[in-house]
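User: Can you predict the 3D structure for this chain?
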Amino acid sequence: MTEFTAVAAVIIGISAVAFWRLLRGPTVFDRLLAASAVATNAIALLAVTGFIFDRPDMFVDLALTYALLNFIGSVVAGKYLERHAGDEPAEREGT
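Assistant: Here is the predicted structure, written as structure tokens:
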């Protein structure tokens, strides 16, 4: 059980770095990729949580559902950004 807890801690650390990029990303595309990375890490964390609580069947089902929602959300956001790519404000100098 301690191995799964260590893996969960590593996933949370990686998610924190991606979440920082989500907040401070220089472009909207960086933020979209960071949001997908955070969601992917959340899916892995759900699966590991299932092993921590000895119920991997239930948590893997939740992880698969969340993965499907993440995929649909990423496609929708990508399509929206494809149509509105010129709407992004000019980047500031020095940031």
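Residues 74 and 80 are 10 Å apart (CA to CA). The helical segments are 2-24, 28-52, 56-83.
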